[in-house]
Amino acid sequence: MINALGLLKERRFLPLFVTQFLGAFNDNLFKTAMVLFATYQIFNDPAVESNFNALATGLSLLPFFFLSALSGQLADSYDKAGIIRLVKLAEVGIMMFGATGLIIAKHGYATPGIVMMLGAVLMLGIHSTFFGPIKYAILPQHLDEDQVLGGTGLVEAGTYLSILLGTVTAGWIGVEAAAALVIVVALVGLAAGRQVPSAPRVGPMLKLNWNPLTASWRLIRQTMHIRRLFLAICAISFFWTIGAVLIVVFPPLAKNVLTADERVASLMIAIFSIGVAVGSVIINSMLKSEISAKYSPISVIGMALFVVAFSIESRLWIPAPPGSLYNVWHFVSHPQSLIVLGTLMGIATTGGMFVVPLYAFLTTTVTKDQTARTVAANNVVNAGAMVVGAAAVIALTALGVGPADMLLVVAGMCLISAWIARRLHLACD
């Protein structure tokens, strides 16, 4: 990864990195501001809070399920840089709409504000669906073969660092400031996107299939017959299902179990983002630019152990006095906080070590004219798995399962991911 940092000096990589960084920052700034605003200022019921977060997560993922096939076809048929510019232009309009929803809800019109905010989340999902395949598929066109893993790691690390900044910022600024900032960042992202070098079509022009269902099925069928792609996509999907559950659980867990305010909730999500970025750097160093899943099984087993430990620590937590919440200072001064935050960091770091090499498989197993569709197929399966994860949270919450018990479900899913990753490693030997 240290050697890969030199890519940040080159125009073939830097504008893409900045565009992706700002997009992920903006996406998470808006979503986190919305979720924390709804959790702490609109709703006052743990079950409703959890269900709202799950609904927001599900809405953001639906476009991946229905539109990823089309996005992959377009990215493999047209100049990827041109698509980036169109997508970033759309982001400006989406953020204006979402910002208006935040302001309306803040000023007492909760129902129309919530509808507009959730509508913006759905549109941001569409935005990410069309940008997602490109950020990975463009790398083999702009980078040398021995730089792809390093570039992938930088994109992944940059993504989670931007999630960190967006999450922390959302917890520390007001709703009005967040509404203004998302529009400004979208405009800067549009300017950065215009600097991405051209990445024209490599293979023949595709005949586009505009039917989302048949296109998705055909895309998955054409991709998943390659054994190591099938296993890599399955492993990544389980990981992101785990991630979806954790994202839904964190804010209610912070408020109702750890009895902490919204800034602590954003701190928890931020630490998770730091951990994934750290894991990306560690695994790149361990693999020395080799594309291999040999460390993925042990990494996700370690993640399962950290998740179980986090569940136990949540149950042993000494809550704030009734009717009050810990602020950041009181939380970090709590005698149990370092253990809780350290365990959370462990979950995220091992997760990053698990997933980064798997994304490198997606862009190096197939030819350059198929990379976007391969990433898109992965996104379809990932989105379906994450929607199932969000729906499972709603169902388990209805059955009375609390956040601490939900973490044990996550630990079990980690073991399944380890088994799939082990099969992937054996299939590639």
UniProtKB/TrEMBL annotation:
Signal peptide: none annotated. The lineage of its organism: Bacteria, Pseudomonadati, Pseudomonadota, Alphaproteobacteria, Sphingomonadales. This is MFS transporter. It comes from Sphingomonas spermidinifaciens. Keywords: Cell membrane, Membrane, Transmembrane, Transmembrane helix, Transport. The chain crosses the membrane at residues 20-40, 52-71, 83-105, 117-139, 159-192, 229-252, 264-283, 295-318, 338-360, 380-400, 406-424. Coiled coil: none annotated. The keyword Manganese does not apply. It holds the Pfam family MFS_1. It is found in: Cell membrane.
